[in-house]
Write a structure and sequence with these properties.
The chain folds into two domains: 220 residues, Rossmann fold (3-Layer(aba) Sandwich); 53 residues. The chain has eight helices and eight strands; from the N terminus they run ααβββαβαβααβαββα. It starts with a helix and ends with a helix.
């Protein structure tokens, strides 16, 4: 690829990812037909997805210097060897904590990440946040748990028809309240305890989530682009966090890590159950 081509592609990634690349239908499931079985940490796949394209040189954060390979036509190029190494570390960590029965909370509130995060989290059965981060989600978890319990109970009552005894106006107001809560915290309504880790797609956009995770000593996994400060991230993964193609590929590894962790957890439970049955005989 020539210098001119690199510059053109990089400019397209940086400037148009937030516009044309997110034109997919809201209902589309980005990971419904994804081939997780053959997914491997591969540098060539990252190159094709544009994972190596950072931001313009003028937006470079000095704390990202160790993850930058060089500059082409004013665009920072991420060192994919570092990406491969850091991604492998994050995958091992996620698999371990999930195999121990813990949750990883997926967070992505930036426009181009929202539907990808929701799709990925649903695919692997993880809690997620794609709307505005609710202050106190970690630091005041008791209050948040009370609201999610109210949401779960309300939805169950609605299904059982327990609200039919109220007037139509009252039913409408109750339905509106449940809809509002579902929109704001539907992704965490089944999160009964604090997660063992948080996975963030946008360090700048989701700074509140990161701050609360730090306060509660919750490990943070995050994509770090060339314009961010990675110092508070426990498992930084240098990657283009603007292009949907990059986000989808890199998120797929996180989804697969959770799925693999759950498979290990299931195998451990089955082994324990089999040992218990054998001991009883």
């Amino acid at each position: 690829m020539t210098e001119e081509n690199v510059a053109a592609v990089a400019q397209d990634v940086v400037e148009t990812a937030a516009e044309g690349s997110v034109s997919k239908k809201v209902s589309e499931d980005y990971f419904a037909d994804f081939d997780f079985a053959n997914l491997a940490i591969d540098m060539n796949a990252m190159l094709k997805a544009g994972v190596h394209f950072g931001h313009q040189k003028s937006r470079r954060n000095p704390k990202m210097d160790e993850y930058i390979f060089g500059i082409r036509n004013g665009v920072n190029i991420i060192d994919l060897q570092k990406t491969v190494s850091r991604l492998a570390d994050a995958v091992r960590f996620v698999e371990k904590i999930v195999s121990e029965g813990q949750d990883v909370l997926f967070v992505g509130t930036k426009k181009q990440a929202k539907k990808l995060v929701e799709s990925g989290a649903r695919r692997c059965g993880s809690p997620y946040v794609i709307d505005r981060w609710l202050g106190g989600t970690f630091t005041n978890f008791g209050v948040i748990s009370g609201r999610t319990r109210f949401l779960r109970d309300g939805e169950e009552k609605m299904k059982r028809g327990e609200y039919e005894k109220y007037t139509k106006f009252e039913q409408m107001k109750m339905a509106e309240e449940l809809e509002r809560l579902e929109r704001r915290m539907g992704g965490i309504k089944h999160m009964m305890k604090l997660p063992a880790a948080i996975f963030v797609t946008g360090v700048i956009e989701d700074t509140l989530a990161i701050k609360e995770a730090v306060k509660r000593n919750i490990p943070i996994i995050a994509f770090v682009d060339t314009n961010v400060d990675p110092s508070q991230i426990d498992y930084p993964i240098p990657a283009n966090e603007d292009a949907v193609s990059s986000l989808r590929l890199m998120m797929a590894h996180m989804v697969k890590a959770v799925l693999s962790g759950k498979e290990k957890a299931m195998a451990i439970r089955n082994s324990a159950a089999a040992a218990a049955v054998k001991a009883e005989k």
